[in-house]
Design a protein that fits this description.
Radius of gyration: 21 Å
Distance between the termini: 28 Å
Largest sheet: 6 strands, mixed
Number of strands: 12
Shape: flat
Length: 312
């Protein structure tokens, strides 16, 4: 996954989806109006965000490897758990296995002491249906960034608690909602995530958190106080730590509410007790694309790059 486009999570591209639907229509030759048939098929690819748990999520050319991985579920799960323990000193829980072109993408959740979602890739030799347990890997920087985000959440707990409380309050008082926890577990895989937002960072280019990361990797059981003391606040660059708020309309067939969107933008701009960083805000309709977990569409309201809200 390209971290620079992290909020377009696993997107397959609407044009690609439309192209596939059009091809199916032409092949059917059933006399149904092509435009109407295409629109119906596209519509069926979406599901209400409150109902989405990850079912229907797919990766390119993953059908065959997905079947092989499921048939060897225990071996895949053990290989991934061993990988995270060896490489990152982290215990994980495996939530979902999705076939990809050359193996299986395994979505996991850390258990202790930090909390984050990520994934690893298990290569599969399709010719003899063999799980290559000794070749498990993660995409460059993916897990490191996830750990970094978990560390930010840990050392700035009070500020994140304020942000969580605000977004939960908005969801209770306004006609908006967030993603399901099950969808984050099964197809999230994008670091520290909640139903209402996710974080985006990179330890390589963030001098403020690098000492914290190094200390944690030396001893994952190190106290939060010591981690906080290692943080280099003077080196913090808010543009390298992003908070992406992703809200959805609560009711079916409802366009994003501009009044609610403007309220959230105004509130975030004025709040002083939330984490420092660059904030992007999206308000979407009620649906997500099953295959890709994506909720941002043409009718979404957004305030983001290059017009993010910078909290110094």
């Amino acid at each position: 996954m390209n971290r620079k486009n992290k909020w377009i999570i696993y997107g397959i591209g609407l044009s690609l989806l439309l192209g596939g639907c059009m091809n199916m229509d032409n092949a059917n030759g059933n006399g149904v109006d092509e435009k109407e048939s295409t629109e119906n098929q596209v519509k069926n690819q979406y599901v209400r965000v409150q109902e989405y748990t990850g079912e229907g999520y797919t990766l390119k050319n993953g059908k065959e490897t997905g079947k092989i991985a499921e048939a060897n579920h225990e071996e895949v799960e053990k290989a991934v758990k061993d990988f995270f323990l060896k490489e990152y000193k982290t215990d994980v829980k495996v939530h979902n296995i999705v076939g990809n072109e050359d193996g299986a993408t395994v979505f996991v959740e850390s258990t202790n002491p930090l909390h984050f979602y990520t994934y690893a890739i298990v290569p599969i030799d399709k010719s003899n249906e063999k799980i290559q347990s000794d070749r498990v890997f993660s995409q460059e920087g993916q897990v490191e960034s996830a750990i970094t985000e978990g560390l930010y959440r840990s050392i700035f707990k009070d500020k994140f608690d304020h942000l969580d409380h605000y977004l939960e309050k908005i969801a209770n008082e306004e006609p908006v909602t967030g993603r399901t926890v099950e969808s984050l577990q099964n197809v999230g895989g994008s670091g520290y995530m909640t139903p209402y937002y996710f974080l985006s960072s990179t330890v390589v280019n963030d001098e403020s958190i690098k000492p914290v990361y190094d200390l944690y990797m030396e001893d994952p059981q190190v106290s939060t106080e010591k981690l906080r003391a290692a943080y280099n606040e003077q080196a913090f660059d808010p543009t390298k730590f992003r908070v992406v708020i992703n809200l959805f309309m609560k009711d079916k067939d409802t366009d994003p509410d501009e009044k609610v969107f403007n309220k959230v933008v105004s509130d975030i701009e004025s709040m002083v007790d939330i984490p420092r960083g660059a904030y992007s805000i999206f308000l979407n309709d009620n649906t997500v694309l099953k295959q890709s977990f994506e909720g941002v569409k043409d009718n979404s309201l957004e305030k983001g790059i290059p017009d993010e809200i910078i909290k110094e």
